[in-house]
Every structure is written in C-alpha cells, then in structure tokens.
Specification:
Layout (H helix, E strand, L loop, with lengths): L16 E6 L5 H11 L3 E4 L17 E3 L2 H9 L5 H25 L2 E5 L9 H8 L3 E5 L25 H24 L2 E4 L11 E3 H4 L23 E5 L4 H4 L1 H13 L4 E5 L5 H9 L3 E5 L8 H8 L3 E5 L3 H6 L10 E3 L4 H10 L1 H17 L3 H13 L7 E2 L14 H15 L10 H11 L3 E3 L6 E3 L3
Parallel strand pairs: 1-2, 1-4, 2-3, 4-5, 5-6, 6-7, 8-9, 8-10, 10-11, 11-12
Antiparallel strand pairs: 7-13, 14-15
Helix pairs in contact: 1-14, 2-3, 5-15, 15-16
C-alpha cells in the first residue's frame, strides 16, 4: 500500500541506513521500520524468528526485510522433532550472523528491540560501537519489567502458601534480568524505556512515550459500515487477549457478566488465538474494544489497531498519573484509560454515550496520524542520532516509582512481593541501587496504600 506523499523537508532521515531488529514484539520492529522508512531512511529489518501469528505486511519500498523467506522456512521447522528443530536452529543462527555482518558493514545506527541484541549478553553492542555505530536499545516491557511485577510470574500464585521452589526460580530469573538490563545500559549508546518499567536501570534513559510508536500505513481508513448504537441494538464489545491470564481476562469477563446481569444490553465477544485478519474484522464489527485490565502502556498493540480502525479502546491500569506527570498533554496516548476497579463504569460510559465514544475514537486516530506518525517518529529518532535530545526526554532512575506492575492486580502484586521478601530477603528485589524505591516496594508489600497523583509517590501506612 503506497504511503502518503512527503516533501523533501519531511525526510529527516534521508541518506541514513538503519538496522532494526531482532525481536518483532507486537509488530513493534515492523512498525518502527515502516516509520523510519517514511522518514527517508533505508531500513534493514531483521526478524530472528517469524511466528505464524505475525500479520502479513506490505512493507515500504525503503524497507529490506533481511532473509525473510529463508527465516520463515527455518522458523517453521522449530518444534517439529529434534532433528528438524536442530536444523532450523542452525539455519537461524547462520542468518543471525549474516544480519550482524550486514549491520556492521552498512548500518549508520542500530536500533534493537526486546531483551537482547544478536546474543544474550550485549558484547555485540560493544563491537558495533567500536565500528562507529550508534546503538539504541528499545525495551517494550517484558524484558525489563521486574519479573515479580509481571503477570508472567503468575505461577507463584497457584499455591495458598509460598511455593519455595517456584519463588526461588522467580528470584533467580529476576537476578539474571537485572544483570542483563545493567549490561545493556553499559554497552548501548542509549536506552529507551517505559518509565513504569525502569526499576533496574543504573543510568538515565529516554522516555519511550516521548518518541511514540509509528502505526504504519497498512490499516487504511476506518470502516464507515461499522455498527451504530441504535436504541434497540446491543453494544458490541470485543476483547482479544494474546495471553488471557496476563490481560486480566477473568476479571473482564466477570465485569461483563455483572453488567449483563444488571440488565445492560451488551454483546460481549471474547476471542483468543485467532488469525490477525479475523482480529481486525472483529474490531471493525464492534462499537469499542477492551484491551487489558492491568496494563502499564495506555496504547499497546491491540489498542493501537483499534484506534487505527476508528474504535475506542478501554485500557485499565494503575500508573496513568505517573505517565501524565512526565509528558506534555498532547503526547499522552489517546485511549479510554481507567483504574482497574472502574472498568464497569468506563464500559457503561461508552455504551450509554456512543457520540462520546465516536469523538474519542476520532481524537485518538488524529493522535496516531500526528504525534505517532512515521514522520513524527523519524524526527524524534533523528534527534537521538544527532544528540539533540531535550532534557525532558530523560528519565532519572531515582524518578522510577511504580509499584504495581503489569498483568497483576494490586493484591496479587503484594502477595508475590511478600513471598519473595520473606523467602529470599529484601535484596532479592534487586533494587539496592535505588534505596528509596526499595523501601517503598517493601512498605507496599506489607500493605501501605499508594498515591501516584503527586509528583513523588506518597505511601499511607494504613491498610
């Protein structure tokens, strides 16, 4: 799909060759490559593994997807028996080496997404920098977010009493995670991070939301034939969790059942694990969508797709006040954010006032087309590459104050924290470099209430 015409003055990255990869988490690498290409850059996009659920994309003419078909064939062999799995793994390692060499020879700068670069420990970043490459590492949540604040630590919660084996395994993973984050901070030129996930960082990092996420050119215009809220028509709400246990699906379903039990006319569609084209069709056929309940990003992948298709996403979370404090109003991602306890009220507000929902969706799409456009993103990346970085883009590690995490309710976070501290000690939190945050985390685990509405977190010791 051809992109919009841009003038020569709108190409801040013209003449630059940029490497993007290796993890395409929620299509972040693909969208980044698209945005940079719209900004005039030649982009080498490397996806180390291509999963079956990755949507098909018609890439910008400036994007070269490295070894795309070969990596797809090698990826398809994984998990198909030990011999095919071995062959597929060896092929992927070979393509990884070739991608590294291409980046080393031709790239002006390398933008890495995920928890690592080409190898587990970022010595490859040191090599690239010795060859004059600027290395920018983008975290998108899971790799840097403390594991004890992540819904992926939910296994610990399956027991009524502290499960010693699982908790100690969690602590070991947290220690490895914190060491890797510190190593990336040491060897990368700079790090881009969500302020709600910056607990392990030893150095200042760039606020992820100051840069935004380019959506790409492949959604087209919103479908004018979508549903309308007639008085005799149920409000259709769509939820499509990639990981139901992390997205708070159980609580979302319970809220929907309660609302329908109270007599509200709501048609709730909950589907998971469906092909991407079906996801987009379901979004188009809904009045609005629910992304997740315990998020630390107001506009992640599924919510962004909903906005691009003209629908308002509801996103629950605890940290919205922290993000607002660190961003200009125009840069706060547009979505219907709410506290997890207010999900039912937010659903009814949109269902009872369809005009408001439509206005919100229109404003949110305007946000994507301006603040999160490919050109806007390219201008900001250009500032990183040239070193012309505004002071308010930087987050100091001492400013990190979020205690709730992602994918877990407040009570679940407290429970995990208490078990970690009781079984392995306070140092298991890996927060010795931030003593104030460490003490706040301990107090929170023991029942202190949190107020994020002020510039600094205020803890009320009353339970």
């Amino acid at each position: 799909m051809p992109g919009p015409e841009t003038s020569e003055n709108d190409l801040p990255l013209e003449g630059k060759t940029l490497f993007v990869g290796p993890q395409d988490i929620a299509c972040f690498a693909s969208r980044m490559a698209e945005g940079l290409a719209e900004g005039g850059a030649r982009v080498m996009l490397y996806r180390q593994v291509v999963e079956p659920f990755h949507p098909k994309m018609d890439y910008h003419r400036n994007v070269d997807v490295l070894f795309d078909q070969a990596i797809k064939r090698a990826s398809a062999k994984l998990g198909k028996g030990w011999l095919l799995n071995l062959w597929g793994s060896l092929c992927l390692m070979f393509y990884k080496l070739l991608a590294f060499l291409k980046a080393l020879i031709w790239a002006d700068a390398c933008l890495f997404i995920g928890g690592r670069g080409f190898i587990g420990y970022p010595l490859d970043y040191l090599v690239l920098r010795l060859f004059g490459k600027k290395v920018i590492h983008f975290y998108v949540g899971t790799a840097s977010r403390p594991r004890y604040l992540s819904g992926f630590a939910r296994d610990v919660l399956k027991a009524e009493e502290p499960p010693i084996k699982q908790t100690r395994k969690l602590v070991r993973r947290v220690l490895r995670q914190s060491k890797r984050v510190k190593a990336v901070a040491r060897f990368a030129s700079m790090v881009v991070e969500n302020p709600l996930c910056g607990h392990f960082h030893p150095k200042p990092f760039i606020n992820y939301f100051q840069l935004g996420v380019p959506v790409g050119r492949y959604f087209g215009e919103p479908d004018s034939d979508g549903p309308t809220n007639q008085h005799d028509e149920a409000t259709r709400v769509f939820h499509c969790p990639s990981a139901p246990e992390v997205k708070g699906t159980h609580a979302i379903v319970a809220t929907m059942e309660r609302l329908k039990g109270d007599g509200h006319s709501i048609d709730f569609v909950n589907r998971s694990g469906i092909p991407h084209p079906e996801v987009l069709d379901e979004i188009r056929g809904s009045h609005f969508v629910i992304d997740q309940l315990y998020s630390d990003a107001p506009l992640a992948g599924f919510a962004t797709e909903a906005v691009a298709l003209g629908k308002t996403p509801i996103v629950g979370g605890y940290g919205w006040e922290i993000l607002r404090q660190g961003l200009p109003l125009k840069l706060f991602p547009s979505s219907a954010v709410c506290h997890p306890d207010a999900l039912g009220d937010q659903i009814l507000e949109l269902a009872k006032d369809p005009a408001k929902s439509e206005v919100m969706a229109k404003e949110a799409r305007g946000f994507l087309n301006t603040e999160w456009s490919g050109i806007a993103f390219s201008h900001r990346i250009s500032q990183l590459l040239t070193g012309k970085i505004p002071d308010d883009w930087w987050i100091q590690p001492s400013d990190v104050c979020y205690l709730h995490g992602m994918g877990l309710s407040e009570s679940e976070v407290r429970r995990i924290l208490c078990w970690v501290i009781d079984l392995e000690g306070e140092d298991a939190l890996c927060l010795n470099h931030l003593p104030n945050l460490k003490q706040n985390m301990i107090r929170f685990a023991r029942g202190a209430n949190v107020d994020y509405a002020r510039a600094n977190v205020v803890l009320d010791a009353r339970k």
